[in-house]
Design goal:
The protein is an alpha+beta fold. Helix content is 21%, strand content 41%. Strands 1-7-6-5-4-3-2-8 form an 8-stranded antiparallel sheet. It has a two-stranded antiparallel ribbon with strand order 9-10. A hairpin with a 2-residue loop joins strand 6 and strand 7. The termini are far apart. It binds fe (ii) ion (FE2). The site of fe (ii) ion has 5 residues, from loops.
Length: 216
C-alpha cells in the first residue's frame, strides 16, 4: 500500500427510465462533450484514433464556476461487450492515473448507466472522503442533468436523429501528428535565431565550450 496516495473507488449507477439505445448513444458519444457539458468539460481534443482506441487531451473544470482545472491525456478504448468504454486518465501535471470503466445495461424499459471510477488522490483525501463524494456528485449531477435533457429530447423525437450540425466528423483513423506537422512548419516562424556551440574534450573527463553563437 502506498500511503502517500489514497485510492478512491466510486461505483456510480443511474437507473434511468429511458430506452437502452438512446442511453447507449449518449454514454458513448464524446463529440457532444464540449458543447453540452461546457461547464465541466472545457476541452476534449482528439489526438489519435485507430479502431476502438482513442487518445484525447482533456481539460476538466473541477467544479463549476470555480476556476480550477485539471489537464489529462485520456486513453480510451471502446468496449462493445459492455456497451461502453474504459478510460485511463493521465494527469499531465501530477503524472497520476485515474481509471473509468463505463457500461450500459438494459433493464426492462429502463437503462442502467453504470461507471466504476478509480481516483488516485493525494494522501490527505483520506480525511475527507465525504467531501470528495460531494464534489464528485455535484459535478456529475450537472453533467447528468444535461445528458438527461438530451435523452428526453431524443425520446420525443419521431424521425431519425441527426446531430450533424454540432458534432464533428470523426474519421475511423486519425492522427493529430499527421494533421499538424508539415514539412514547411519552420518557415512560418516570425523570427529565426541560431544557437550554436562548439565543445571539445579537455582531456580531464569534461567537455569545454569553445565557441557559441552571439545573441542577435
Ligand atoms: Fe454527456
Amino acid at each position: 500500500m502506498n500511503f502517500s496516495r489514497y485510492k478512491i473507488y466510486v461505483q456510480r449507477t443511474c437507473e434511468l427510465e429511458a430506452p437502452f439505445d438512446i442511453c447507449e448513444e449518449s454514454s458513448n458519444d464524446w463529440t457532444h462533450f464540449t458543447h453540452l457539458h461546457r461547464k465541466a468539460i472545457v476541452g476534449y481534443r482528439l489526438l489519435n484514433k485507430k479502431g476502438l482506441r482513442e487518445v484525447f487531451l482533456y481539460k476538466a473544470r473541477v467544479l463549476y464556476p470555480l476556476p480550477f482545472y485539471d489537464h489529462y491525456v485520456i486513453f480510451r478504448n471502446y468496449e462493445p461487450q459492455q456497451n461502453g468504454y474504459k478510460n485511463v486518465y493521465l494527469n499531465v501535471r501530477t503524472g497520476q492515473l485515474n481509471y473509468l470503466s463505463g457500461y450500459v445495461i438494459q433493464k426492462g424499459k429502463s437503462s442502467l448507466l453504470m461507471a466504476d471510477y478509480l481516483f488516485n488522490m493525494s494522501w490527505y483525501w483520506r480525511f475527507f472522503p465525504g467531501f470528495f463524494l460531494w464534489v464528485f456528485r455535484r459535478r456529475m449531477r450537472s453533467v447528468m442533468d444535461e445528458d438527461n435533457q438530451w435523452i428526453y429530447e431524443r425520446m420525443k423525437q419521431k424521425e431519425p436523429y441527426s446531430n450533424k450540425a454540432c458534432a464533428p466528423v470523426v474519421p475511423e483513423e486519425y492522427d493529430l501528428f499527421k494533421d499538424l506537422f508539415k514539412d514547411d512548419i519552420f518557415k512560418h516562424a516570425d523570427i529565426r535565431m541560431d544557437d550554436y556551440s562548439k565543445e571539445t574534450f579537455d582531456g580531464k573527463g569534461r567537455f569545454k565550450i569553445k565557441e557559441t553563437a552571439p545573441l542577435p
